[in-house]
Write a structure and sequence with these properties.
The chain is mainly alpha-helical. The chain has 2 domains: 8-52; 56-181, Winged helix-like DNA-binding domain superfamily/Winged helix DNA-binding domain (Arc Repressor Mutant, subunit A), CATH 1.10.10.10. The chain is built from 7 helices and 3 strands. The protein has a 3-stranded antiparallel beta sheet with strand order 1-3-2. The radius of gyration is 20 Å and the shape is elongated. The N and C termini lie far apart (43 Å).
Length: 183
């Protein structure tokens, strides 16, 4: 006989739901609660580590979007889309990063209405520091899981995301979606 799994805090919440609504199928609600709690733990851990290095989430989003981009550069308009902020907010962010020497701005020679934002060597170093900080936070959170559990969870969560967002080749970010969640 298999031992009972260790109960988590969501199990307590689910017990309360079952008590109040005995006829309600709460399996999907249980999944949603667990996903929200996990996302909250990840965000809190990453934000705490970034703050310890004087890094804000906005900086994280812009620098890592540029680090992933071809030639480490994007138009300001593409940064607006990837970071899901207003053009005024991205202009402010780019200005602050440029003052620190982490990005440069240039007019697109092919379309003078566009501004091209490029990651500098100092910006690349900062982005690498941010990425290393984020990786350490994730390793601290997930490090006790064995490889097969991580693989199974990735497979299951991929299926969930495809059911919500569609396949990657048809992906369109939702308004307000942070850049670190975008492909």
């Amino acid at each position: 006989m298999r031992p009972e799994p260790v109960r988590d805090r969501v199990d307590v919440i689910v017990d309360q739901w079952r008590e109040q609504f005995p006829d309600l199928d709460i399996s999907l609600k249980t999944l949603a609660i667990r996903l929200r709690r996990i996302a909250h733990h990840i965000e809190r851990e990453v934000q705490r580590d970034l703050a310890a290095h004087g890094i804000g989430m906005w900086e994280f989003e812009v620098l890592l979007a540029l680090r992933r981009a071809p030639n480490r550069q994007l138009s300001a308009g593409e940064l607006v889309r990837r970071c899901q902020v207003t053009s005024g907010a991205i202009t402010n962010r780019i200005g602050r990063l440029a003052e620190r020497g982490w990005v440069t701005r240039a007019v697109d020679p092919d379309d003078r209405r566009q501004v091209i934002v490029s990651l500098t060597e100092a910006g690349l170093e900062r982005a690498t520091q941010i990425l290393d900080t984020k990786i350490l936070a994730e390793e601290r959170l997930f490090g006790d899981l064995d490889a097969s559990t991580v693989e199974r969870m990735n497979t299951d969560l991929r299926a969930l995301l495809v059911s919500i967002e569609g396949a990657a080749n048809s992906y369109r970010p939702e308004p307000g979606e942070p850049a670190h969640l975008a492909p």
